[in-house]
Design brief:
This protein is of the alpha/beta class and 200 residues long. It has 7 helices and 7 strands. Strands 1, 2, 3, 4, 5, 6 and 7 form a 7-stranded mixed sheet that branches. The longest helix is centred in the N-terminal third of the chain and has 25 residues, at 26-50. It is globular and about 60 Å long.
Length: 200
C-alpha cells in the first residue's frame, strides 16, 4: 500500500512539473515577448509619424519619403522587378479621405531563446493603419488587413513559413495619440551658457 502511495505521489509531482513547465514554457514566453516587441514597433511608428502629422494631413505624397524608418513599397507592389526598400515599417498603401490620411503599414520582428542546437525562434508580423486626423491633431491606430501583400513582395515582407500574423487587437498599445502624449521637455538653463528659457 505504501509503495502504491509513493508511485501515486511521484505521478502527481511529475504532472505538476509538466503542467508548470507548460505554463512558463519558452514558447509562451517567446510569444509574449514577440507581441510586446510588435507593440513597441507600432508605437514607434506613431512617434515617427507624429512630427509630420500636419504635412501628412495636407499633402501626404509630398512628405511621406521624409518620415524616418518608413519604406515605401507601393511601387514594388505593382512592379515585382523593383527591389523592396528597407525600413523599420513598410508602407503598402497611402490614402487621403474626408476622415484623414491613412498610412497602411506592416512591420515584423523576431525573438529567439537558447543557443546552438537548442535555439528556438519566432517571427511575427502585424499590419495596421495610422489615421492622421484632417487637422493633424490626432493619430488613431487601427487594424489593417494586408491580404496577400506578403506574396507580392516576397520574403522581404512575408518572412519564412514560420512567420506569425498577429492582429493589432492582440497587442497592448496606445490606440490614439495627441499632443498630450508629446509634451515638450522642461526648459533647462546651464551655468555659463545662453538661456532661451522663459524668464532667462
Amino acid at each position: 500500500m505504501a509503495r502504491l502511495a509513493g508511485v501515486a505521489a511521484i505521478v502527481l509531482v511529475t504532472a505538476g512539473v509538466i503542467y508548470g513547465c507548460a505554463w512558463i514554457s519558452p514558447e509562451s514566453q517567446m510569444e509574449r515577448q514577440l507581441r510586446a516587441e510588435l507593440a513597441d514597433m507600432v508605437e514607434g511608428a506613431q512617434d515617427a509619424t507624429w512630427q509630420f502629422r500636419e504635412e501628412l494631413a495636407a499633402d501626404p505624397e509630398a512628405v511621406i519619403s521624409e518620415v524616418g524608418g518608413i519604406a515605401d513599397a507601393r511601387a514594388a507592389l505593382s512592379d515585382p522587378t523593383l527591389e523592396v526598400p528597407f525600413g523599420v515599417w513598410t508602407l503598402i498603401d497611402l490614402a487621403k479621405t474626408d476622415e484623414g490620411t491613412a498610412l497602411t503599414l506592416t512591420t515584423k520582428t523576431d525573438v529567439s531563446r537558447g543557443g546552438g542546437f537548442f535555439t528556438m525562434s519566432d517571427e511575427g508580423r502585424v499590419c495596421f493603419d495610422l489615421l492622421v486626423s484632417p487637422d493633424g491633431s490626432r493619430i488613431d491606430t487601427l487594424p489593417a488587413d494586408c491580404g496577400d501583400v506578403g506574396q507580392a513582395l516576397g520574403d522581404d515582407l512575408q518572412g519564412d513559413s514560420a512567420s506569425i500574423d498577429v492582429g493589432l487587437n492582440e497587442l497592448d498599445l496606445r490606440r490614439s495619440v495627441d499632443s498630450s502624449d508629446y509634451r515638450p521637455l522642461p526648459c533647462q538653463c546651464y551655468s555659463g551658457s545662453d538661456c532661451d528659457c522663459p524668464g532667462g
